[in-house]
Amino acid sequence: RITFGGSVEIPGRVVLLHPDHNLAVVSYDPSLIGDTPVRSAELRPRFPAAGDEVWLVAMTPRQQVVSRESRVARVDAAAIPLPHSPRFREFNAELISLTETIPSVGGVLADDKGRVLAIWASFSTTGASGKPNAFFAGIPAELVEDLVAPLRAGQPFVWPSLGVEFETTTLAAARARGLDAEAARRLEQHDPRRRRALMVRRLTSGSPAAELLEVGDLVLAADGEPVTAFREVEKVAARGSEIELTVLRN
């Protein structure tokens, strides 16, 4: 069910669930909300950087809207350990953390014009004691745009997942694994701020990638283009049914 303005509740229908990032698109019949004033949110699909000013707009457990101005503390690769019991675990995503937050059940991060930069959501993890835990972070609106753009155009959503979980490693660590100076220079020029490389962390059993890649492989390029971020690999994979990866294996 979907609640509008804390006063109108109507049925909704899940029309799409992202196979990797667990984002859902929910549809509803606009006629059911009558003359309740509702305006569509505008997405701004860009990655905020550390230090950027943002607004956290969220809902309390009592369905009250709260907001607070904050700053991006950092944008980090999701590093969530495997759960003890089967459940969804976010991976291959850059998550946004804030310097200051407010208690909520979720919401959005927006710029000063109200455009949505990220979804503020709870992520399940496992605490030090082994018990289930959770934390809040922002998942960039670019991933949301991937879902809704084809639906708005009347096209099916296609997600060519590689079946690979990546992690990031520093260029210094990559050099220790055999990355030569020229390859390190290309990656540094491509991403001078973060100076990192992508490494294979896990593979989906039975996928084509599981037959060709190995855990620990450094992925240097996709279709000839240097890659240092998860989204870069996803964007290249979305172009067609095949992708050529340049890999360093020690």
Features:
alpha+beta, Thrombin, subunit H, 2 domains, six-stranded antiparallel β-sheet, five-stranded antiparallel β-sheet, 15 strands, 16% helix
Which SSEs are present, and which pair or pack?
Elements: E1 2-4, E2 8-10, E3 13-17, E4 24-27, E5 53-59, E6 65-77, E7 94-98, E8 107-110, E9 116-126, E10 132-140, H1 141-152, E11 164-170, H2 171-176, H3 181-190, E12 196-203, H4 208-212, E13 218-222, E14 225-226, H5 230-237, E15 245-248
Antiparallel strand pairs: 1-2, 3-4, 5-6, 5-8, 6-7, 8-9, 9-10, 11-12, 12-13, 13-14, 13-15
InterPro entries: PDZ (IPR001478), PDZ_sf (IPR036034), Peptidase_S1_PA (IPR009003)
Protein name: PDZ domain-containing protein
Organism: marine sediment metagenome
Explained architecture:
With about 250 residues, this protein is an alpha+beta fold. It is built from 5 helices and 15 strands. The chain has helices spanning about 140-150, 170-175, 180-190, 210, 230-235; strands at about 1-5, 10, 15, 25, 55-60, 65-75, 95-100, 105-110, 115-125, 130-140, 165-170, 195-205, 220, 225, 245-250. The chain is globular. The termini are far apart. InterPro entries: PDZ, PDZ_sf, Peptidase_S1_PA.
CATH class membership of the largest domain? Mainly Beta
Question: Strand portion, in percent?
Answer: 35-45%
Cα distance, first to last residue?
A: 52 Å
Helix/strand-derived category reads alpha+beta
The gross shape turns out to be: globular
Average predicted local confidence, pLDDT: 91
**From N to C, what is the helix and strand string?**
EEEEEEEEEEHEHHEHEEHE
The CATH homologous superfamily of the largest domain: Trypsin-like serine proteases
- Determine the fraction of residues in helical runs and give it as a percent range: 10-25%
Profile the largest sheet. 6 strands, antiparallel
Rounded radius of gyration (Å): 20 Å
Number of domains: 2
Which fold does the CATH topology of the largest domain refer to?
Thrombin, subunit H
Q: Could you tell me the number of beta strands?
A: 15
Secondary structure tally, helices? 5
Domain PDZ: 163-250
Protein name: PDZ domain-containing protein
InterPro entries: PDZ, PDZ_sf, Peptidase_S1_PA
